[in-house]
TrEMBL record:
The lineage of its organism: Bacteria, Pseudomonadati, Pseudomonadota, Alphaproteobacteria, Rhodobacterales. One of its GO terms (molecular function) is ATP binding. This is Sporulation inhibitor KipI. It comes from Shimia thalassica. Keywords: ATP-binding, Hydrolase, Nucleotide-binding. The keyword Lipid metabolism does not apply.
Length: 231
C-alpha cells in the first residue's frame, strides 16, 4: 500500500503528528526543519510546542484553545504557502578521543568493515553529521551522516553501564551519550563535549538541524578537558 504524505495523526487530545515520509534522508530532514521553522514563523492559535524528528514533527497545542481539525487546517495552509528554505543550523565542534580503553568496539568495527582502525577513525572524522532528533534519554541527540562503510547493525546484546560521553555508531546514525546507560551500539571513542548542560533555559547544546564536526584529541587533552568538565 502506498503511503500519502504529509499525513496527520491525532495524539491524545493535545497533539498532532505530522509525518512527511518514512525514509531517513537529508532531503526529508530538510523538509521537516522547513516545516518546523514555518510553524515558528507563523504559529497557529493554541500552539504550545513543536518537536521535530527525522521524518515527522509532533505539534502540541492547548486543547482548550484549538483541536485536531483546526490545527491540521492551519498546518496544511503552511504547505500551500511559499516557505523559506530550512536554515543550515549552527556547526558544533565535538571532541573525541579514540584511545583503546575509550573505544572498546573500534577494533571490531575495523574487522567488520575490512578497514584498519586508523581508516575507521579517519572516515568517522570525515562524516557530515546533522542533528536529526532528540530521544531515549536527556540530551541524546541522534546524528545522521555516518559514512556508508561504517554503517553496521547494532549488537545482538546491549552492554550495561556505558560511560557518559561515549561516541556510538549504529546504521546511519551516531550519538554521544550524556548519561551512564546500556547500549547495543558500537562504542568507538569518548568525548569531553558537554551536550547535556545545567542551563535551565537551554539544557541541550544542539538544536535539531545543527551540524556536528568531530575533532580528534589526544589522551593528554582528553584528561585535561575531562578534569575541567568542559570541551
Amino acid at each position: 500500500m502506498t503511503s500519502i504524505f504529509p499525513s496527520f495523526t491525532a495524539v491524545a487530545d493535545h497533539a498532532l503528528l505530522v509525518q512527511l515520509g518514512d525514509d531517513i534522508s537529508e532531503e526529508l530532514s530538510a523538509r521537516v526543519l522547513q516545516l518546523d521553522q514555518a510553524i515558528a514563523a507563523a504559529p497557529p492559535s493554541g500552539l504550545r510546542e513543536t518537536i521535530p524528528a527525522f521524518v515527522n514533527v509532533l505539534v502540541e497545542f492547548d486543547p482548550l484553545v484549538t483541536d485536531h481539525i483546526e490545527m491540521e487546517t492551519a498546518l496544511r495552509a503552511l504547505f500551500d504557502a511559499d516557505a523559506a528554505p530550512a536554515s543550515e543550523g549552527v556547526v558544533h565542534d565535538v571532541t573525541v578521543c579514540y584511545d583503546t580503553d575509550l573505544s572498546p568496539d573500534l577494533d571490531a568495527v575495523a574487522q567488520a568493515t575490512g578497514m584498519s582502525t586508523d581508516a575507521v577513525i579517519a572516515m568517522h572524522l570525515a562524516g557530515e553529521y546533522r542533528v536529526g532528533m532528540y530521544g531515549f534519554a536527556p540530551g541524546y541527540a541522534y546524528l545522521s551522516g555516518v559514512p556508508k562503510p561504517l554503517q553496521l547493525p547494532r549488537k545482538s546484546t546491549a552492554i550495561r553501564d556505558i560511560p557518559a560521553g561515549s561516541v556510538l555508531i549504529a546504521g546511519p546514525q551516531c550519538l554521544v551519550t550524556t548519561l551512564k546507560m546500556p547500549t547495543g551500539w558500537s562504542i568507538i571513542g569518548r568525548s569531553t563535549t558537554q551536550i547535556l548542560r545545567e542551563a535551565s533555559d537551554r539544557p541541550f547544546l544542539f538544536d535539531v538541524g545543527d551540524r556536528v564536526q568531530f575533532r580528534r584529541i589526544d589522551r593528554a587533552t582528553f584528561e585535561s578537558l575531562s578534569s575541567r568538565g568542559a570541551s
